[in-house]
Each structure stands twice: as structure tokens, then as C-alpha cells.
């Protein structure tokens, strides 16, 4: 397919935009960055008590079912990537699907997707930086106002690694992931060995509603824990054999993190039963009577892991910051080469292959969000939790849209390979689950945790729609670049 010559607002043609280094990332690099982006320790620390409150001792199983749901959505990304490896990932997929009706439809849907991601990523990563600062401040007993400085330092610390090249940042992120995963699994094994008869706890329901408690926000929280699995999609233009590498990365990362989630949650339930007795132990978890349940678990079963558990909180947050920078900057880069951001944002370092302007813009936006919210809310725990919830919903909307549009694209553009199970049933299961997660997160009247999330998500969507409408008069040029992938280069 030939590519139209596109001229940006600054006069740069498509050929003058920076090129990402193709065929440079193997399965290890894409998988390592994705695992670090999921940051399982943070999800465990923040969500497991809520899940236990809903499901009691049956809580570990929710992560198995959530992984199945995520893999249903992952089918959409895999099928799209086999046909359109792109730094834009969801943006390109949704644009191409919309273009099966008209170029303007594709431009509108692709632009909405871009602006949703443009807003979501800085807020999402700000939640990690805020957690990092709050974790340090709480551990050392510093002044409550000091966390913001630690958060900004964490963002600044990541910049040199990010600018040195994708390979460097991937190795750092993976090392941090290995630390958190290893500590959680080792702690789990120790708890299992010492808990004896309590090992059967997740096979019967104590407190909570058992599997009936899986509905509503509980399932949404479990799904949220896997957010970051899509990290590899925007690396499609840089991956070796992306049509095989990206689908394998999605499968590996989701299954590995499912194991970490399951083991950590299983250990917490079993451990608290062992320490306090069945009913009382689960009651302590479900009522948040213990503010740091994993610290309690470590102190009782393996005190020598105390320091490592503290480091796990830091490594999970910092690894997430570094790893999430890869997809975020590729989205910024892709939007810039399409004309939705200044063309300078699409510049790529000829030495490192890093879209360095996009990287700096993204880090700057993340720092700005963190500082503004500190000035308004002050409390790091409140800020981190709200940012994580609010920023995840737009990403779930993008997941849903891509799953709904996959059969449209395949049927129109690759009908010979159309398979109802692979291209309709499985993606639509994923779309239903993600749509359910969106609704449970934003429906009015909730007391915890998202009573006002619908307001902020509404602002996200309104901003994205306005941005897309502004882009519509340039539909021919913007749409062509939003749809760009390897096959058009």
C-alpha cells in the first residue's frame, strides 16, 4: 500500500519525521517491559484487602478469572497486531476499523482514542510516582508534606535511563520486576510451608460473599490489577517479528502476573487465618483493621524479608514508571506524526532510537499533574488511589472499543481469515467484561471508592471528543497518519 505524503503544521513531511528503530526488540524486551508495567506488587498492596472484604477467603480465585477476561481482550490486540504492527497500537487499530466505513469516521474514532490515552497515561503514572513518595515518607516518618519532593525526584531519576535507549530502560524495569515478584512468591512459599491446615482456606468461604462477591467493583479491581498488559502493543514497529512477538508477550505477561497475584493473595488469606484464626483473621483484612497486612505477614513468618518488602513497594512503583514510559511516549510520538501534537514531539534520537521529545513531554506532564494534585489534595494515599481509578477507566474504554471493532475490521479487510470464535465471540466477551468494569467504576451513588469518578471520566471523554472534532477538517491527512503501521511505511 502506498503512503500519501503528509505535511504537518510546521511543514515537515512524513519522511522527515523521526523513525523508530525497527527490528530492535525481541520477546525478552517486550515481555520484560510489560511485566514491569503491570507492577503486580502495587496492585496486591492496594486492592487485595478490598477483594477479601468482598469475597472472603475465596479472593485468590478472582485473579484467575480476571486473567481470562484480560486474555479475551488481548485476543483483539494480537489479531490487530498481526495485521498492523504500529507505535499507535490502539489508535491505529481503531482508526483502521473506523475507516471501513469512511475516512472521517476513522479519524474521529482514532482521535478520540489518542486524546483518551494522552490524558490517561500522565495521570496513571503520576499515581505510581505519588505512591513512591508516600511509601518513602511513611516508612521513614518524614513530614507529611515531603512526599511530593520524593515523587518528583523519582520521575527525574527515571529520565536518564529512559533517554539512554529502550534496551537500557527495559533491563532496569525488568530487574525491578524480578525483585517484587521474587519477594512476593518467596513470602508465599514460606507462608504455605508454615500454615499447615490453613492451606485449604481458599477452598471454602469464610466471611465475605465467596464467589457471589466477585461482582461489582471487586471484579473491576481485579481487572485493574492487570492494566499494563497492553504495554507491548505500541512497541510493534520496533519489535522483531511483531506478528508473533506481541501476541506471545501478552500471553506470557498476563499468565506470569496471574501467578504472582494468586500466590500473594493466597498467602495473605492463609497467613491471617494462621495468625488470628479463620473468622477473626479475615475480618481484620476485610475491615482494614491492619493498614499494612503484608508487613504483618512478613513480620510473623519471615522477619528477614521486612527490608525487602519495603524495597518491593519502591521497585514496583519505579519499575512501573520506567516501563509505562515506553507505550506512553509511543502514543505521544504517534499523535505528533499525525499532526495532533506539535511535530517536534515526533523527533527521534538518531543515536538511541528514543523519541526523546515525547519522553520529556510525557515526564513533564506527569510531574505537572503530581504537583497540581498535591496543591489541591495534599494526601498522597488519596491522590494515588484516585488517580489510579480515574485514569484506568479511559484505558478500559479503549480496550472495549478495540474489542468491539475487531470483527468489523477483519470482516471488511481480511474476510478470508474471518473466524467467528476468534474474531467475534472471544473479543466480545472481553468487551462485555471491560464495559462492565467501566460501568461499575463510574456509576453514580457509590460510597467507595469512586463516588465522583463519573465526573472526571466525563471530562476525559468530553476533551477527547472536542479534540477529535477539531481534527475532523484535516481528516484526510490526520486519518492517514493515525492509521499508520509497518505495512504503510
Count up the helices: 17
Helix content estimate: over 70%
Low-confidence stretches: 1-16
Any idea of the CATH topology? Amino acid/polyamine transporter I
Going by CATH, the homologous superfamily would be: Amino acid/polyamine transporter I
CATH architecture: Up-down Bundle
Cα radius of gyration in angstroms: 22 Å
Q: How many domain units?
A: 1
Indicate the topology.
Blueprint lengths: L26 H12 L1 H16 L5 H23 L6 H10 L3 H38 L6 H17 L2 H30 L21 H8 L17 H35 L1 H9 L6 H9 L4 H33 L17 H22 L2 H34 L6 H23 L10 H19 L3 H8 L7
Helix pairs in contact: 1-7, 1-9, 1-12, 2-8, 2-9, 2-10, 2-12, 3-8, 3-9, 3-14, 3-15, 4-5, 4-14, 5-6, 5-12, 5-13, 5-14, 5-16, 5-17, 6-12, 6-13, 7-9, 7-12, 8-15, 9-10, 9-11, 12-13, 12-17, 14-15, 14-16
Fold and architecture overview:
This protein is globular. The protein contains 17 helices and no strands. With 489 residues, the protein is mostly helical. The termini are close together. Residues 1-16 have low confidence and may be disordered. The protein has a single domain, classed as Amino acid/polyamine transporter I (Up-down Bundle).
Nutshell version of this structure?
The chain is mainly α and 489 residues long.
Descriptive keywords:
globular, 71% helix, 17 helices, mainly alpha, Amino acid/polyamine transporter I, 489 residues
Amino acid at each position: 500500500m502506498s503512503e500519501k505524503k503528509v505535511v504537518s503544521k510546521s511543514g515537515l513531511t512524513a519522511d522527515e519525521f523521526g523513525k523508530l528503530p525497527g527490528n530492535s526488540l525481541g520477546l525478552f524486551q517486550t515481555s520484560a517491559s510489560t511485566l514491569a508495567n503491570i507492577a503486580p506488587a502495587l496492585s496486591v498492596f492496594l486492592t487485595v484487602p478490598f477483594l477479601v472484604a468482598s469475597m472472603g477467603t475465596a479472593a485468590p480465585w478472582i485473579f484467575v478469572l480476571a486473567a481470562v477476561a484480560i486474555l479475551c481482550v488481548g485476543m483483539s490486540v494480537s489479531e490487530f497486531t498481526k495485521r498492523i504492527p504500529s507505535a499507535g497500537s490502539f489508535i491505529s487499530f481503531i482508526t483502521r476499523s473506523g475507516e471501513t466505513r469512511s475516512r472521517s469516521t476513522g479519524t474521529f474514532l482514532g482521535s478520540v482514542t489518542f486524546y483518551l490515552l494522552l490524558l490517561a497515561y500522565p495521570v496513571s503514572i503520576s499515581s505510581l510516582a505519588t505512591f513512591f513518595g508516600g511509601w518513602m515518607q511513611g516508612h521513614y516518618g518524614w513530614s507529611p508534606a515531603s512526599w511530593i519532593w520524593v515523587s518528583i525526584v523519582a520521575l527525574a531519576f527515571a529520565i536518564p535511563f529512559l533517554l539512554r535507549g529502550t534496551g537500557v530502560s527495559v533491563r532496569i524495569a525488568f530487574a525491578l520486576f524480578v525483585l517484587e515478584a521474587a519477594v512476593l512468591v518467596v513470602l508465599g512459599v514460606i507462608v504455605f510451608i508454615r500454615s499447615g491446615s490453613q492451606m485449604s482456606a481458599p477452598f471454602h468461604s469464610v466471611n465475605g460473599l465467596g464467589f457471589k462477591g466477585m461482582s461489582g467493583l471487586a471484579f473491576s479491581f481485579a481487572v485493574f490489577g492487570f492494566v499494563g498488559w497492553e504495554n507491548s502493543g505500541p512497541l510493534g514497529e520496533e519489535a522483531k517479528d511483531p506478528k508473533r512477538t506481541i501476541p506471545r508477550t501478552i500471553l506470557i505477561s498476563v499468565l506470569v502476573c496471574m501467578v504472582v497475584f494468586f500466590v500473594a493473595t493466597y498467602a495473605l488469606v492463609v497467613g491471617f487465618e494462621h495468625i488470628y484464626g479463620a473468622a477473626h483473621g479475615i475480618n481484620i483484612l476485610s475491615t482494614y483493621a491492619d493498614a499494612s497486612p503484608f508487613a504483618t505477614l512478613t513480620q510473623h513468618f519471615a522477619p528477614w524479608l521486612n527490608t525487602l518488602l519495603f524495597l518491593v513497594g519502591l521497585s514496583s512503583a519505579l519499575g512501573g514508571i520506567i516501563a509505562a514510559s515506553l507505550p506512553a511516549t509511543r502514543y505521544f510520538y504517534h499523535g505528533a506524526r499525525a499532526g495532533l501534537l506539535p511535530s517536534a514531539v515526533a523527533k527521534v534520537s538518531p543515536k538511541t532510537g528514543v523519541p526523546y521529545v515525547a519522553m520529556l513531554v510525557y515526564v513533564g506532564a506527569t510531574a505537572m499533574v503530581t504537583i497540581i494534585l498535591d496543591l489541591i489534595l495534599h494526601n498522597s494515599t488519596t491522590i494515588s488511589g484516585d488517580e489510579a481509578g480515574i485514569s484506568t477507566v479511559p484505558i478500559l474504554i479503549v480496550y472495549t472499543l478495540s474489542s468491539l471493532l475487531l470483527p468489523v475490521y477483519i470482516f471488511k479487510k481480511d474476510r478470508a481469515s474471518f473466524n467467528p470464535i476468534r474474531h467475534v465471540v472471544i473479543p466480545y466477551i472481553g468487551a462485555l467484561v471491560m464495559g462492565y468494569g467501566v460501568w461499575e467504576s463510574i456509576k453514580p451513588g457509590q460510597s467507595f471508592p469512586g463516588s465522583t469518578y463519573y465526573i472526571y471520566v466525563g471530562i476525559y471523554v468530553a476533551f477527547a471528543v472536542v479534540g477529535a472534532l477539531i481534527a475532523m477538517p484535516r481528516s484526510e491527512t490526520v486519518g492517514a497518519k493515525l492509521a499508520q503501521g509497518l505495512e504503510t511505511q
